[in-house]
Amino acid sequence: MKRTWTIIGVSDVPGSFKWYQSLLLCRHQWGAHEHPSLMSPDEAPPGNGLLLFFRVDDFDMAFKRARALVTRFEEEPHVNPNTQTMEFSLRDLDGYYVTISALNQ
């Protein structure tokens, strides 16, 4: 496999596109194209049972970009005791929990 697409339902595709512009992610309007798991945010709150987890090779730059996107982080940068790599977490515009993890220590 050379490429995977992560698709999430969002309330504002252009706004989410700007938010995720530096990440590989496909945004999807709720109810468009009749995908069963993306029909409505009323079925379950956005992010219920989902963690978007990205491994990046430019952790410091990703953190700098993330700082410009949000006023607060769910988790500030720290070493994950399981992976022994740096990571931080934040919420996107629709409330999805997003974790950014360093690819290398």
Description:
- By secondary structure, this protein is of the alpha/beta class.
- Helices cover 17% and strands 29% of the residues.
- It contains 2 helices and 6 strands.
- Strands 3-6-5-4 form a 4-stranded mixed beta sheet, covered by helices on one side. A two-stranded parallel ribbon has the order 1-2.
- Helix 1 (13-19) links the parallel strand 1 (7-10) and strand 2 (26-29).
- The mean pLDDT is 81.
Provide a quick synopsis of the model.
The chain contains two helices and six strands, in the order E-H-E-E-H-E-E-E.
- What is the global morphology? elongated
Proportion of beta-strand residues = 25-35%
Mean pLDDT: 81
Radius of gyration: 14 Å
Task: Give the N-to-C terminal Cα separation.
Answer: 25 Å
Which blocks of ≥5 consecutive residues have pLDDT under 50?
Answer: none
Given helix and strand content, the structural type is alpha/beta
**Strand arrangement, major sheet:** 3-6-5-4
How is the biggest beta sheet arranged? 4 strands, mixed
Helix % is 10-25%
The number of helices is 2
The helix/strand order is EHEEHEEE
The count of β-strands is 6
